[in-house]
């Protein structure tokens, strides 16, 4: 088993510093009046440490229990924390007492017998609560600043550990719920199903009782029958818990059988393969007696596999029918509720005759509104002089026409100027090209008579002038 103090030093920051560890092992009860912050810090450190150690299963107990949600306070706990340098923690009882006052640790007896929720304002008015949350009735002292701090045998539910386990269970069940029957478990099936999310170790009987009580009473998430060991989770679509019925007990039993048969078949299959290999090896080694024995055993295992497989198939068929029937019951209940709702809403309308009267009254009111609107429009039309309207319209049209004509005139002038400019440029280009041609001919000493046109001559004369 992992040493408790080594675990705390490895996982709890407060236990790694030598000075801090010395403070935790000292009798810090007097700090309640001289240094309240220091006192509360030491108490909180011990509370976190004990919760983590319990969750990890490293707290020794005289009862040899492997509880993770229940803390056992006895002399073996102090012995596990004892060191050669610091001795035993001198104020551990005060730290546990403080945790009880804050409802972080709750005596198992009070937790299991309480009728109200753990989160109720007035919870379990027990003698230790009335007497200033002291634990003298339980044999645990240490709440006073004077006298010896004693830690004796006691059992306390670690609320933080239980809450974490409950959250893990509820998250997992929401992910695996596929029908109305998938949330029904026996205690055995519950432990088998939720073991992967609660840790590798199997739940102890104490842990199982505490967790189921918390889920049923404090979280209102399950209905639980201790007599039959049947657990029924509240469906996500439901707002109220339904009690465990005889049908639920049968469903839990079938689900448990189904969950147990498949591992049996898997184990028998492995045994079958091992015997087959053994027989083959015996044959190869020329050991007929060993081979025959292995074959006989293999036949027996094969028969067991066939029997269990047939049983599994039959149970799966029965369970499928139960699931179907349960879903049908849910559908019928929903339809029945919907029918009642529809009937109630129809009754609120007052029946067909009342609806017809309402619609007739509505039509009359709409006709009255139309007539009133028509009369108002006629009065408004009579108050307007049509002649003035025509004159104003003509003036607006005339102004718009003049504006349009002015724009068109400007556009025409721009187009004409652009055309003249293009024509003048074209003529200039022609004259320039002709002059270049004549200059080329003059250089050669020949000028055709046809090039001496009046227009060219005129332009040349104008150039000479």
TrEMBL record:
<feature type="region of interest" description="Disordered">
    <location>
        <begin position="443"/>
        <end position="465"/>
    </location>
</feature>
<keyword id="KW-0175">Coiled coil</keyword>
<dbReference type="GO" id="GO:0032511">
    <property type="term" value="P:late endosome to vacuole transport via multivesicular body sorting pathway"/>
</dbReference>
<feature type="coiled-coil region">
    <location>
        <begin position="389"/>
        <end position="441"/>
    </location>
</feature>
<dbReference type="GO" id="GO:0000815">
    <property type="term" value="C:ESCRT III complex"/>
</dbReference>
<dbReference type="GO" id="GO:0006900">
    <property type="term" value="P:vesicle budding from membrane"/>
</dbReference>
<dbReference type="GO" id="GO:0009898">
    <property type="term" value="C:cytoplasmic side of plasma membrane"/>
</dbReference>
<dbReference type="Pfam" id="PF03357">
    <property type="entry name" value="Snf7"/>
</dbReference>
<protein>
    <recommendedName>
        <fullName>Snf7-domain-containing protein</fullName>
    </recommendedName>
</protein>
<dbReference type="InterPro" id="IPR005024">
    <property type="entry name" value="Snf7_fam"/>
</dbReference>
<dbReference type="GO" id="GO:0005771">
    <property type="term" value="C:multivesicular body"/>
</dbReference>
């Amino acid at each position: 088993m992992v040493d408790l103090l080594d675990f705390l030093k490895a996982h709890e920051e407060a236990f790694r510093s030598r000075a801090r560890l010395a403070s935790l092992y000292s009798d810090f009860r007097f700090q309640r009046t001289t240094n309240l912050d220091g006192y509360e810090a030491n108490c909180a450190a011990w509370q976190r440490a004990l919760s983590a150690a319990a969750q990890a299963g490293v707290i020794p107990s005289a009862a040899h229990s492997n509880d993770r949600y229940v803390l056992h306070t006895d002399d073996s706990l102090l012995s596990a924390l004892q060191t050669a340098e610091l001795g035993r923690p001198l104020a551990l009882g005060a730290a546990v007492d403080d945790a009880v006052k804050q409802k972080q640790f709750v005596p198992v007896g009070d937790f299991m017998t309480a009728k109200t929720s753990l989160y109720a304002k007035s919870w379990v008015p027990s003698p230790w609560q009335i007497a200033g949350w002291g634990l003298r009735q339980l044999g645990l002292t240490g709440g006073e600043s004077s006298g010896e701090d004693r830690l004796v045998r006691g059992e306390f539910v670690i609320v933080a550990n239980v809450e974490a386990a409950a959250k893990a269970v509820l998250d997992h069940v929401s992910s695996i719920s596929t029908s109305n029957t998938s949330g029904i478990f026996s205690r055995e099936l519950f432990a088998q199903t939720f073991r992967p999310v609660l840790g590798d170790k199997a739940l102890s009987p104490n842990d199982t009782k505490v967790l189921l009580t918390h889920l049923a009473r404090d979280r209102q998430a399950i209905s639980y029958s201790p007599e039959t060991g049947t657990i029924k989770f509240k469906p996500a679509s439901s707002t109220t818990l339904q009690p465990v019925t005889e049908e639920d007990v049968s469903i839990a039993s079938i689900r448990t059988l189904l969950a147990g048969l498949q591992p049996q078949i898997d184990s028998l299959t492995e045994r079958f393969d091992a015997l087959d290999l053994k027989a083959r090896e015996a044959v190869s080694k020329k050991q007929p007696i060993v081979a025959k024995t292995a074959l006989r055993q293999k036949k027996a295992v094969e028969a067991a596999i066939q029997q269990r497989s047939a049983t599994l198939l039959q149970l799966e068929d029965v369970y499928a029918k139960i699931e179907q029937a349960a879903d049908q019951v849910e559908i019928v209940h929903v339809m029945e509720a919907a029918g009642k709702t529809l009937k109630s809403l129809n009754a609120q309308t007052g029946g067909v005759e009342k609806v017809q009267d309402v619609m007739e009254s509505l039509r009359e009111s709409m006709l009255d509104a139309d007539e009133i609107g028509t009369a108002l429009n006629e009065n408004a039309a009579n108050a307007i002089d049509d002649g003035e309207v025509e004159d104003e319209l003509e003036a607006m049209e005339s102004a718009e026409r003049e504006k349009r004509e002015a724009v068109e005139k400007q556009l025409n002038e721009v187009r004409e100027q652009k055309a003249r400019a293009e024509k003048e440029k074209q003529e200039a280009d022609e004259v320039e090209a002709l002059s270049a041609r004549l200059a080329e001919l003059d250089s050669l000493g020949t000028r055709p008579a046809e090039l001496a046109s009046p227009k060219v001559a005129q332009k040349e004369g104008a150039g000479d002038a």
